[in-house]
Structures are given as structure tokens and as C-alpha cells.
Amino acid sequence: MQPAKEVTKASDGSLLGDLGHTPLSKKEGVKWQRPRLSRQALMRCCLVKWILSSTAPQGSDSSDGELELSAVRHQPEGLDQLQAQTKFTKKELQSLYRGFKNECPTGLVDEDTFKLIYAQFFPQGDATTYAHFLFNAFDADGNGAIHFEDFVVGLSILLRGTVHEKLKWAFNLYDINKDGYITKEEMLAIMKSIYDMMGRHTYPILREDTPAEHVERFFQKMDRNQDGVVTIEEFLETCQKDENIMSSMQLFENVI
């Protein structure tokens, strides 16, 4: 499997740590709109590629394959309920489940598995810390294991959710201790983990203090009452009013 070469190389201060696209607001009269993820975009997701790699025929390139694999007989319990909960089709869910069971016969994913996945797709950096944070965001009940149902519900939000849903998920990622608030230290820890994973050489110029500068700028915007923490309401309101942040939402799949 090839490393995630689709990851944007330049950094201009995204909330996610790597926004490399010119904000659409700066293009002539173009208003930002939430992109609709195509199959090709879906296949760029590291977690999807990891799952489907075990179901692809030997010697094939899963990056340009379809999610609807032929003769899929695996089916999760409550498939109809999962289809209602997510924005995946029945065939997509069957294919994802097949790969999930192949990779994780116990039906559970642990944190070490996440670390292996991201080490494979981001070999140029250290993905350990980011994989830890991402795993905790998926592990809603904090029991150290992720079931298929929780896994695909999270993927559905990240890949096909509304902007509001993605922002709520992002808040949960940044709220490391799950106390309902984001501190500057928490935001910096996530940002630094993304920079570490992407690798220093992927950026034209990256100073050591770049993540801290980005966090300082975002935190000043978000902490509206200057109490030292960001609430979910402050986070949602600020992000939805800031076109630079909104345009970064389309890059979620680059680090998921």
C-alpha cells in the first residue's frame, strides 16, 4: 500500500494543522460550499483503505477500486439500523464490515492497531500521538476498544457528515480530557501531533513555533469571553463564521 501521498504539502494555519488550499473566499466571488465526497475521495481515507486492503484481490490497487465488492456475504448485525444511522449504502456497509472482520476477527479495534495504521500511511513522520488522540475520539465509551458500529458511525460523520456534525466531532477530538471544554494546551497537543505525523520535510518551511502560533491565533478567535477555555458553543459559532476554518473541513479526509 502506498503512503498517503494525497496529503497537502503546504501549511497556512488550518485548524487541523494543514490547510494548504487557498480559502475559497479569496477566489473571485466563489462562496464556500460543503463538498460532496466522491467514491475516489472516500478511498483516500486511511481507515477505509486499511479496511478494504484485506478484501481487494491479490495484486490489485485498492485505491481505485469500488466499495461495492463482488459476492459480499458478510453482514453486520442491525445492518438496516446502521444504514439509517450513517450515510453509507448497504453495499458499502457490507464491504466495510467484511474488511473489518478480516482485519479484526474479534470485532474490536484497539489503540495499537490505530498506531500501526497511521505509521503505515504516514511513514515520513511520527503518527503515534495523533493515532492515540484519534482513537480516543472514536472510543466514545472509553473502554479501550472500538466496535464496528462505533467505527462506521464516526467515519460517516467525518467523511459524509454536515459541517455542523464534523465540527462537533472535531470539538470532541480537541477536548482531550472530555470535560466539555477545549484548553489552549489541548488544542496545541492535537496540532503538534498532526505536524509530527505529517513529517517535517513535507513542509517548505516549518519553524518549531508554527503550531503554537496557529493555536494562539485560533484560540483568541474562539475564546470569546476570554475565560481561558473554549466551549462547544464558542467553537461552533467561531468556526461557522470563519471561512478559512470552514474550508479546512474538506481536508478532514487527509488525516483520517
UniProtKB/TrEMBL annotation:
The cross-references to SMART domains, in alphabetical order and at most eight, read: EFh (SM00054)
Molecular functions per Gene Ontology: calcium ion binding; DNA-binding transcription repressor activity, RNA polymerase II-specific; potassium channel activity; potassium channel regulator activity; RNA polymerase II cis-regulatory region sequence-specific DNA binding
Q: Which Pfam families match?
A: EF-hand_7, EF-hand_8
InterPro entries per the record? EF-hand-dom_pair, EF_Hand_1_Ca_BS, EF_hand_dom, Recoverin
Region ranges (Disordered) = 1-22
Gene Ontology CC annotation, any one? voltage-gated potassium channel complex
**Keyword Metal-binding among record annotations:** yes
Give me any GO biological process, just one: regulation of potassium ion transmembrane transport
Q: Which SUPFAM superfamilies match?
A: EF-hand
Compartment(s) of residence: Cell membrane
Gene3D superfamilies named among the record's database cross-references: EF-hand (1.10.238.10)
Q: Which residues form the EF-hand domain?
A: 126-161, 162-197, 210-245
Give the record's family classification: Belongs to the recoverin family.
Protein name per the record: EF-hand domain-containing protein
Origin species, per record, is: Colobus angolensis palliatus (Peters' Angolan colobus)
What does the organism's lineage look like at the top? Eukaryota, Metazoa, Chordata, Craniata, Vertebrata
